Amino acid sequence: MSAFPLVIAGVLALSGTALAAGPVLIRDVAVFDGTQRLPARHVLLADGKIADADFRGATPAGATEVRCDGCTLLPGLMDSHVHAYANHELPLLLGVTTQLDMFMPLDMARDIKARMAAGKLLDQADLYTAGTLVTTPGGHGTEYGFTIPTLSRPEDADAFIEARLAEGSDFIKLVYDDGKHYGVNFTTLDLPTLTAAIRATHRRGKLAVVHVSTQAAAKDAVAAGADGLVHQFTDSEVDDAFVQLAKQKKIFIIPTYAVNESVYGRAGGTGLLAQAAIADMLDAGQQGVLKQVMRPVDRSARLDALMRASLGKLKAAGVPILAGTDAGNPGTLHGASLHRELELLTQAGLSASEALAAATSVPARAFGLHDSGRIAKGMKANLLLVKGDPSMDIRATRNIVEVWKAGVAVSPLRQARQLALQQAAAKAAARPQMALPADGKLGLFSSDAGKLVMAAPFGSWQQNVDSVMNGKSQVVLSAGTGPSGQISLKLDGELKPGFAYPWAGVAFNPGKQPFAPTDLSAAKGIRFKVRGDGATYALQAFWQAGGYQPAAATFKAESEWREVKLEWASLKGFDPKTTTWLGLVAAMRTGPFQFELADVGLIPN
Questions:
Q1: Virtual torsion, Cα 164, 167, 170, 174, nearest 10 deg
Q2: What is the tens place of the pLDDT at every residue in 350-372?
Q3: In angstroms, rounded to a whole number, what is the distance separating the alpha carbons of residues 460 and 445?
């Protein structure tokens, strides 16, 4: 929890997930009201609303009084681009009281939205969602291992949009991107179908936002009537024609700088872990996510130059800029990454106050959330209290002192979260360390009448392919001859389009059951000998807190046998004390592959 001075007189009650509190008077704090910083004042909360944004007089009977020297009160932050399929508890703990989701299974959203409508969503951020995005067969959004409806023809757009809104979409997100800018190949909506879908959305009084990755696509989407773009394209700096079009059509843009820096190879989120008020709310896996990047080569200097130039022009033209992270992707984390996004926006030329507005009043106005994003009478009492002045130093948003959801303090939830993480860490520390075999060998490969036999001193080996995510990749395991005449493990296969991140290979499961956490900290890494087709392959390491997002390190399978040693320290975020799975795989490409493994073992400390 924060060590910042917070004086509270009154009672805050926590019962399960049911939080309760009466009126709250926040005394003598500077206020950022969603557009500007105001001098110190008192703010009264009652019945889930801001009862008075400039209260004068004695503390009302029965009210909880809060004082915090040197603090600033601001509207709860809004992340305008997330994928809210995970980490539902985190955003609120980290000061993000509203999430605008750009694609998630609606079944998952319905309970959240029902509790929100009933005024009972006090332990999570408010959620508004696009639900199922609008894409084509084989388009972006179809590659994640579950089936979604798709749109191919303009004449079907009206019924398609009607169905999405009937399902519960609050607004419509459309994909107009063939993926080529990022080195992948998708089908995409054609311009007539995109235009028809936008018009069908507008006829129903809803916003239509569009995913693009290039300036040409952005111009098409804006001309077709898009209300906003959910990414800033990075293939080129915005030109004058785009700026004029954006201004004329009165669109808004969500740059998603935080995810772009991961795409461009920089783990910018690691700096968030230096702030205890954030780091203390994250388990090891969530901390590890902030250390990830989508691409290993750091090209972020080019990204920074593009963003400075493009956002500078858009800002000068008065095009609204909204803060959004694309959280749910590697390198971004729900709740936490918005604080990084705000910092990046200031580095790109927005003032600190403009960045704060981009996460409060600007998205509220853009998405028609008329009771949110400002500190004013009658607004939702979704608030963030921080030490310092974020209108001068944007990093002060990380100095979280208190969060209120509908006027109810979130600090009991933060305390419970911290205690749960401490207990989980203690349990992990008590887990017995797996004793390593004397020779360290994990891969006991042999042949029985020409058939491969895979054994291990503990755990088990098995084929590992992306079919669990509806992928279509394949691999055949067979017995070969190793560098010293021993039996080796041969892998012949093909990575095929189907899942977004195809993989195929072999996996070592260290536990008695699949994905049972096992303490491998007696080793400092894994070693093996490898040869193959000259391509690059990967070690994928999974651990308990990391869930199904692996840490990875690469190796090359050259034509001659060579030894590879990969230490756990090279796997960002990985905790060997709770190892659940180790994969040696071909991944993140398509086409045939062939490599061979021998002498697989652990490197002792």
A1: -20
A2: 999 999 999 999 999 999 999 99
A3: 11
The Cα–Cα gap between 372 and 259 comes to: 25
Name 506's bridge partners: 463, 584
Contact 170, 127 (CB under 8 A): no
Q: Provide the token pair at 522.
A: 């007696």
Identify the DSSP state of 434. P
CA dist., res. 569 & res. 582, Å (int): 15
Token digits of residue 92: 């609120």
Kindly give, in sequence order, each residue whose CB lies less than 8 Å from that of residue 603, ignoring residues fewer than 6 positions away.
Answer: 440, 523, 524, 525, 526, 527, 565, 567
Range from 13-22, 165-174, 456-465, 511-520 carrying the lowest mean pLDDT: 13-22
Q: How far apart (Å, rounded) are the C-alpha atoms in residues 379 and 217? A: 37
Rounded Cα gap, residues 238 and 245, in angstroms: 11
- Distance from CA of residue 290 to its chain's centroid? 9
Helix (H) or strand (E) holding 426: helix 411-430
In whole angstroms, what is the distance from residue 456 CA to residue 80 CA? Answer: 48
Q: How far is CA 560 from the centre of its chain?
A: 40
Q: Do the Cβ atoms of 106 and 167 come closer than 8 Å? A: yes
- Determine the pLDDT at residue 12: 36
Length of the chain: 605
- Token representation of residue 439: 């020779």
Residue 425, classed as helix, strand or coil, is: helix
Q: Which residue has the higher pLDDT, 440 or 238?
A: 238
Q: How far apart are CA 429 and CA 407, in angstroms?
A: 38
CA–CA gap between residue 181 and residue 358 (Å, rounded): 27
Q: What do you get for the CA distance between the two ends of the chain, in Å?
A: 35
Tell me how far apart the alpha carbons of residues 42 and 53 are, in angstroms, rounded to a whole number.
7
Task: Measure the CA–CA gap between 67 and 534, rounded to whole angstroms.
Answer: 64
Can you give the pLDDT at residue 431? 79
Which pLDDT band, with edges at 50, 70 and 90, does 457 fall under?
Answer: very high
Distance CA 13, CA 18 (A): 8
* pLDDT computed for residue 8 by the predictor: 52
With 70 as the cut, is the pLDDT of residue 37 above it? yes
* Consecutive H or E run containing 279: helix 276-279
